[in-house]
Amino acid sequence: MKNVADKPAKLHIRKGDNVKVISGNSKGQTGTILRVLVDKQRAVVEGVNMITKHVKPSAANPQGSLEKREGSIHISNLMVIDPKTNEPSRTGRKLNEKGKLQRYSKKSGNFV
């Protein structure tokens, strides 16, 4: 039987968000989240933290190759960009007009 503690925590980011990297080698870069790895607390951001991947030779690609792709970044190093002000901001959750919990920017108070 699963406990409530086994359930992954809600994250402050989700796929499709525009984020800014606030620390690490890619500090200052912005991009859109392509994928969120909930169990590892990491995210893949478009055009950020590029790594080189070796591709094995295959029938379609007999030579093999080196491929550049995005590596994952820990979510603590990412901040959501408020769409109205284009500034990175912390997020919180509060009820909207319909009574549903929704994320909002703590800087401006706008829903994200």
TrEMBL record:
Instruction: Report which superkingdom the organism of origin falls in.
Output: Bacteria
**What keywords sit in the KW lines?**
Ribonucleoprotein, Ribosomal protein, RNA-binding, rRNA-binding
Cellular component annotations (GO), alphabetically ordered: ribosome
Family according to the record: Belongs to the universal ribosomal protein uL24 family.
Instruction: Return the annotated region ranges for Disordered.
Output: 82-112
Location of the KOW domain: 12-39
Check the UniProt entry and state the signal peptide residues, or none. none
What NCBIfam families does UniProt report for this protein, alphabetically? rplX_bact
What does the protein in this record do?
One of the proteins that surrounds the polypeptide exit tunnel on the outside of the subunit. One of two assembly initiator proteins, it binds directly to the 5'-end of the 23S rRNA, where it nucleates assembly of the 50S subunit.
Q: Does the keyword Transmembrane helix apply?
A: no
Quaternary organization:
Part of the 50S ribosomal subunit.
Q: What is this protein called?
A: Large ribosomal subunit protein uL24
